[in-house]
## 1
Amino acid sequence: PKTLSIADLRAMKQAGEKITSLTAYDASFSALLDLAGIDVILVGDSLGMVVQGHNSTLPVTIQDMAYHSRCVSNARKRAFVVADMPFASYATPAQALNNAAQLMQAGGAQMVKLEGAKTDVIEFLVEQGIPVCGHLGLLPQSVNRIGGYKVQGREPAQAQKILEDALAIEQAGAGLLVLECVPALLAAEITQNLTIPVIGIGAGSACDGQVLVLYDMLNITAGNRPRFSKNFMAEADGVSDAVKRYHHAVKNGQFPAAEHTY
Ligand code: KIV
Ligand code: NA
């Protein structure tokens, strides 16, 4: 099959077809997700926690991200591959270009994702031909500033700021936006107001697509699964079936349900 492009993802938003996404960090899961029909594979810096065993995403390096991106991009045929820019790798446009180029060239990513409304960096990368996915709401790379992994945008002023940042990120040329841990109502408003696809995680069912950390939905993450995730292994006949169940549940609008939503 032909590899999906950002134009295909935009067309899905326009057609009202939900976009399915999961994280992967290696070739075997990449191929499995691809065969299950997952549209977007995110090489998330969550690998710092679920693969490397750190208690945050901060220790992940650009070399780590390029290595895992290459493992994933080698093995998929159809899925669109997005790779995370790790902590402190995009402080200036020039630094961001140097690091994003490694994810694209060494890593084979089709798009890079960065946290926050860094519109100067986004504009510069897009100008250099590097597609960018924004990420708003809960920003795990800022966990030390926030003081924990908490829902964002509950107060009206904070919600307004997230909406304004989302519009600014689209204006800067981003091609996708991830919204993490925000009230469903705010995510719905942002999704309606943007022309680029919005992919939610803990952001309700009105987003244009959904993403989860693979190991959470396969129930192999130690500790508590976040409220917004779901154990798709519970009723599944194996890993591939769990991924297919997630894919269909998102396409049909059955996931996320109210119990996964803020
Ligand atoms: O790193 C990651 O897995 C992510 C998703 C949770 C959106 O950024
Ligand atoms: Na991430």
Note: Residues 23, 42, 44-46, 84, 178, 180, 201, 211, 213 surround 3-methyl-2-oxobutanoic acid (ligand 1) (CB under 6 Å).
## 2
Amino acid sequence: MNSAFEKAKPVLREIECAGYEAYFVGGSVRDAVLGREINDVDIATSATPEEIMTLFPKHVPIGLQHGTVMVLHEEDSYEITTFRTEAGYEDFRRPSSVVFVRSLHEDLKRRDFTMNAIAMTREGRLLDPFNGEESIAKREIKTVGDAYERFSEDALRMMRGIRFVSTLGFSLEERTKEAIMKHGELLQHIAIERIAVEFEKLLTGSYMQKAMRLLIDTGLHGFLPGFASYEKEMYRICNYACTELNAKEEHWALLFYLMDVRDPGSTLRKWKLSNKEIKKIEKIVQGVYDIEENDWNIYSLYALGKEDAMSIERVRTILHNEPIRANITRIEKLHTSLPITSSKELAINGSDILAWIPKKGGPWVAELLHVIEREVVSGRLQNKQEKIREWVNMWDQK
Ligand code: ATP
Ligand code: MG
């Protein structure tokens, strides 16, 4: 058994000793069956949240309305969720309240896909009433129960299905795919924040090309903000392997560049990304356009700063199918050769200029500082106070 499960075993034992059931569930069990690396170990139990909180004094009630308590055990933390059903879905969204039950079967039944509805006991035995193991062997993503019904209960599951294509490389089972093709419009009922979480996993997954093609082929992209009329352009990203991109903002930027959207801000605001994220994505998109037109020079590198410049270069490298390491090294070298990397490093400031030139302050000071900054960046003027003073005096006499 994987060491992450080994470490969590005492938690399960503790719950069982108190007379309740407890199992490993969800993505970690699926990934273990697949032989993939495991992220978070999730636990499901017949004990109520109150019972769990009594058993484990070190806890954080992170989602009591959904039955989830985070328990701290040694160095690790575990999300323990009470068996529940989600009866009473309204408006194609997951319900705001849930019903706790004492049956594992009921809990597995409310889960989205068969591969995600397998439980594992403390001893490593699988409980798999919906044949999730078979789906994993066939590398298929199949809803638990009727696909249309399950997507009507919670339409986000359609996005989740396609994002699992991206993270696992599996295919959608035929009926599951058909239901997405027919009922994509249900996605309109889902909060954009939840959709964005899944879409970003799709965008950054190892099998993004396959998933993106499917997103468009099923028509689901048409119900995502800003994408409906970009079918042809969105397909372009299916030709690029993006696993070497670093941040999710780089993935977004590549997509918008390929869609030929120069100002993605208005679309991204509909996606409710943070201002910081939007600014970064816009900067990368604009940077890629600029560098494609003018190539790198010391001024563009200085103005963008190292981090954003590297993001831009990574996206550009993907576009040209070039070796990433060599291109990034080139940018790093060019950046190291800059005399200064920000205006703060300039050896003088506005007060120095005013002390040297007997003129009243005004916008001319900032303008002159800007010219000096450019001279220094270009290497024509040394970043030493004395040298700059000489230069300023000459400028004043002109
Ligand atoms: P990952 O490894 O990418 O986190 P995961 O399967 O753990 O994948 P989570 O979003 O962490 O995905 O969800 C944990 C589990 O909760 C899922 O495996 C699934 O059983 C269940 N689940 C999550 N979202 C839904 C949903 N919308 N409808 C039904 N079940 C869900
Ligand atoms: Mg998970």
Note: The pocket of adenosine-5'-triphosphate (ligand 1) is lined by residues 26-27, 39, 94, 111-112, 116-117, 154, 156-157, 160, 167 (CB under 6 Å).
